[in-house]
């Protein structure tokens, strides 16, 4: 859990992902299209990935990926992020975190 908190606070947007996950790819693509360059932590390419995956599940992220943190705070998984995007809240959160300038 400490490693997740440390990684999540290193950049305005951090996405915990798996390179083979279609939803993770879609969420990363959404942020790139919004003009945000998130930090990506691919759990299936990290030696401690399984441990971090369990910690994400304990946070309430089920399935464990994608898990999105904005401004160091856990936002949620794909459904939550898409809901925030559709209702216009995501851009405001990104601006407040310093990840988006416009």
Automatic annotation (TrEMBL):
Keywords annotated in UniProt: Cytoplasm, Redox-active center
Gene3D superfamilies hit by this protein: Glutaredoxin (3.40.30.10)
Limits of the Glutaredoxin domain: 13-75
Record's keyword annotation contains Cytoplasm: yes
Cited InterPro entries: GlrX-like_pln_2, Glutaredoxin, Thioredoxin-like_sf
* Places the protein is found: Cytoplasm
One Pfam family assigned to this protein is Glutaredoxin
- Per its UniProt record, what CDD domains does this chain match? GRX_GRXh_1_2_like (cd03419)
Q: What is its main location?
A: cytoplasm
Similarity comment: family membership: Belongs to the glutaredoxin family. CC-type subfamily.
- Name of this chain's protein: Monothiol glutaredoxin-S10
Write down the species. Answer: Stylosanthes scabra
């Amino acid at each position: 859990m400490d490693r997740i908190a440390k990684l999540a606070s290193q950049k305005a947007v951090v996405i915990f992902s798996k390179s083979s996950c279609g939803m993770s790819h879609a969420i990363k693509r959404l942020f790139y299209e919004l003009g945000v360059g998130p930090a990506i932590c691919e759990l299936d390419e990290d030696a401690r990935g399984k441990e971090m995956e369990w910690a994400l599940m304990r946070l309430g992220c089920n399935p464990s990926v994608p898990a999105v943190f904005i401004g160091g705070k856990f936002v949620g998984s794909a459904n939550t992020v898409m809901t925030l995007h559709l209702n216009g809240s995501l851009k405001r959160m990104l601006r407040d975190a310093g990840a988006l300038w416009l």
